[in-house]
Design goal:
Layout: E1 2-6, H1 12-19, H2 36-48, E2 53-60, E3 63-74, E4 79-87, H3 96-111, E5 116-122, H4 126-134, E6 138-149, E7 152-162
Helix pairs in contact: 1-2
Length: about 170
Amino acid sequence: MISLRRATVDDVDWLVELYTDEDTEPFLGGRGPRDWDAMRAQVERSQEEPDETGRMIIELDGERVGTMGYDRVSEAHAIARIGGLAVDPAFRGRGIADEAARRFQRYLLLERGFHRLELACYGFNERAIRHSERVGFVREGVKRKAYLRHGEWQDAVLFSLLREDLEP
């Protein structure tokens, strides 16, 4: 069974290992933490300020298999930006990311009270684009050459999900 929980300091080593894995890192956005100190700071902030940010752990039958997170973009407009989705390569291809994303959407929109979720994927990341569409996000457009990644400008594909878009 898939479950989500807020990350703790005990997860930091595992998170850094996942985020620096050669099969994971190329697809992650540039703003997330990659070293131990930065990851610990993010996890601690997630614990201290749950209305503002969250680093979540995806578990399958109690075993850590992935992570995702959110940051409040606008309090006045109840908008959160989500990202940092990564699933351990040993657990990919089982639908874990899809089920976890749907649970995460419901948590943020129904329990945390956000009105709108936003995310951006690199234009070359077809796997993330297909995943976003599969779990109900609506493609809103492309920011052309928006992110500098390893010396090259990359497009960002923009998505959103509103509370009213949730599947019953």
